[in-house]
Design brief:
This protein is an alpha+beta fold and 239 residues long. The protein has 8 helices and 8 strands; from the N terminus they run ααααββαββαββαβαβ. Helix content is 43%, strand content 22%. The chain has a 4-stranded antiparallel beta sheet. β5 and β6 form a beta hairpin. It is found in: Cytoplasm.
Length: 239
């Protein structure tokens, strides 16, 4: 493990902040989560999770409030949750999660992003079996021993605890996400550098320089699509 989550997040946030794209995507994700249940995070676990994640990306409060207000109103805008799987250069594997109000448009855009950048779409299940859904939570101000102790006190047996630069990254089962956060909060830690439910590749792939450049371009094109929320892959980009 140890994918330097904060470096990846900072790189993506820096790129997206120039166009406010990341905020728009969070707006859609918050709206969908609020619309699917009550528009209150205390009674809606999906919304609570999205808001926790948005906090780590410094999403402005007015973006959050606008999305929740839209869900409270009479908007009947419907979004579909879609997952695409595919392959990049040299057999690299990619998973793309999208929220869209136009399935045909999104499918066409994702297929083109793969096809024009040395990749191709796969069928459902063609690569997902090589990834594990994982909760990733990062904190600062604690040592790995201290984090292990507080998790043990909360009777939590997580997958891994990694020291990464000035932070500690906890890898846990997906259903442990909120329990791990609560353990930290009970220890007085309320700010998280990372708060993600992600898809972790079981094995990372290192690409030759020419293939890696092509792969990175393909990932950038996919992430820039308005309907795409998350992109996961198995390539070690060396961050």
């Amino acid at each position: 493990m140890g994918r330097k989550w904060n470096n990846i997040k900072d790189k993506k946030a820096s790129k997206d902040a120039n166009t406010s794209r990341i905020y728009a995507k969070f707006g859609v994700e918050i709206y969908v989560a609020a619309k699917q249940g009550v528009p209150d995070p205390e009674g809606n676990q999906a919304l609570k999770f999205v808001l926790e994640r948005a906090k780590t990306y410094n999403v402005p409060r007015h973006i959050i409030d606008r999305a929740i207000d839209k869900a409270k109103g009479n908007s009947d805008e419907a979004y579909s949750e879609l997952r695409y799987e595919g392959f990049g250069p040299n057999g690299s594997m990619v998973i793309v999660d999208a929220l869209t109000n136009n399935v045909n448009r999104t499918a066409s855009d994702v297929r083109a992003a793969f096809g024009k950048n040395g990749g191709n779409m796969g069928v459902s299940g063609s690569v997902a079996y090589m990834f594990d859904q994982t909760a990733v939570i990062g904190v600062e101000g604690k040592s790995s021993d201290e984090v292990l102790e507080l998790l043990m006190e909360a009777d939590l047996d997580v997958r891994d605890i990694i020291e990464e630069e000035d932070q500690i990254i906890v890898y846990a089962e997906p259903d442990q996400f909120h329990a791990v956060q609560e353990a930290f909060k009970n220890a007085g830690i309320t700010e998280f550098t990372v708060a993600e439910l992600t898809m972790l590749a079981q094995n990372d792939l290192t690409l030759p320089e020419d293939a890696q450049a092509k792969f990175e371009k393909m990932i950038d094109v996919l992430e820039d699509l308005d309907d795409v929320q998350r992109v996961y892959h198995n390539v070690d980009l060396g961050e």
